[in-house]
Amino acid sequence: MKSLIITILVTVFAFAKAYSQQLSGIATYQSQRSFDFKMNNDKNNGMSTEIQKQLQAQMRKQFQKEYTLAFVGAESTYQQEESLAAPAPSTNGITVSISGAKGITYHNTTEQKLLKESEIMGKEFLVNDSLPKLKWVLEKEIKNIGVYTCFKATISEEYEQPSFNEETGEEEESVTKTRTITAWYTLDIPVNHGPDEYWGLPGLILEVSDGKFSLMCTKVVLNPKKGVQIVLPEKGKEVTQDEFNKIQEEKMDEMMERHGGERGKNGSRVFTTTEIIRN
Fold first, then answer.
1. Which residues are 99's β-sheet partners?
2. How far is 18 from 70, CA to CA, in rounded Å?
3. pLDDT by residue (tens digit) across 191-234?
4. Pairing of the two strands 105-108 and 94-98
5. CB 130 within 8 A of CB 113
6. Domain range annotation of the chain
7. Cβ atoms of residues 139 and 152 within 8 Å
8. CA contacts within 13 A on the Cβ side of 33
9. Which of 34, 60, 123, 187 would bridge 203 by S-S if both were Cys, CB 3.0 to 4.6 A apart?
10. Whole-angstrom Cα distance, residue 54 to residue 10?
11. How many Å apart are CA 45 and CA 39, to the nearest integer?
């Protein structure tokens, strides 16, 4: 009897693995970001609390972007969808414009391979490296996302948050903080893919959030009739992830030194991918 149960389990797992290797699909995700910033009225041309709220609403809307995850077996590609968005509205002469990464990210979970098209100040790079090791903790919580039953998984990680002097704008000693990333995955789609950099769970990740930025799956099409084509990214100078991070840090330092925390000639101040422009 025991040997029969073992045989059945082996057969089930083998079938599930074979099914996941043949499974293909296209998942659509939408991004959202929460904001909680306050600006000193004495130093920001009398910017009222109401205007700050309107700016936050602008920024939230600008961060609502759509992404597509295409997967076939162990391979997947992820990229932002092109959109003909209307010009960002102006609030009291201030316009918020947010640009996002539009290159292709490729994962091969069998070979643990990562290819990612990225850009730093107009220069294109192709990150060629191993997939990041994500230490997921599988939780007991369950919830439904659409028609799918989803299970919770989390990661706790430390990160360095830059700190700046409010008076001079100069960078001070960074602060070490901890954040928890929460993902919801479904065993109904037994592939270990997910949006952005996230992967490695026993089912497709339908939702992921770090508390401020979240990605939510809005649509899944499995085994589409037209099939799924995996196109490998190839644009840009090839670098490792560490090399890319170093270049990015150097360019950010150069930008901070160049602007010195002051407004540029066109009246703009740059916050990484965000520009707040006073007209």
1. none
2. 19
3. 999 999 999 999 999 999 998 899 999 999 999 999 999 999 99
4. unpaired
5. yes
6. 23-278
7. yes
8. 16
9. 187
10. 58
11. 10
- Provide the pairing of β-strand 237-239 with 123-130: parallel
109 vs 193: CA distance, rounded Å: 8
Q: Give me the residues of the chain with pLDDT under 70, please.
A: 1-21, 35-49, 51-63, 83-101, 163-171, 259-279
| Structure tokens that stand for 160 in this block | 């360095």
Q: Phi and psi at residue 21, in whole multiples of 5°?
A: -70, -25
**Dist CA 111 CA 18 (whole Å):** 17
Q: What is the pTM of this model?
A: 0.74
Report how far Cα 131 is from the mean position of its chain's Cα atoms: 15
Q: What is the DSSP letter of 82?
A: P
- For residue 89, give Cα distances in angstroms to 83, 84, 97, 161: 17, 15, 9, 30
Q: Which two tokens stand for residue 234?
A: 């190839």
Query: Rounded CA gap, 125 and 128, in Å?
Result: 9
Token output for 199: 């992967």
Q: Which of 210, 214, 203, 228 is nearest to 148 (CA)?
A: 203
Pick the closest to residue 77 from 244, 245, 228 (CA basis): 228
Query: Among positive and negative, which fits the CA dihedral 188, 191, 195, 201?
Result: positive
**Amino acid 164: pLDDT:** 65
Cα 109 to Cα 242: distance, rounded to the nearest angstrom: 20
**Lookup: tokens for 16:** 């599930």
Conformational region of residue 15, where left means phi above 0, alpha means psi within -120 to 50, and beta covers everything else: alpha
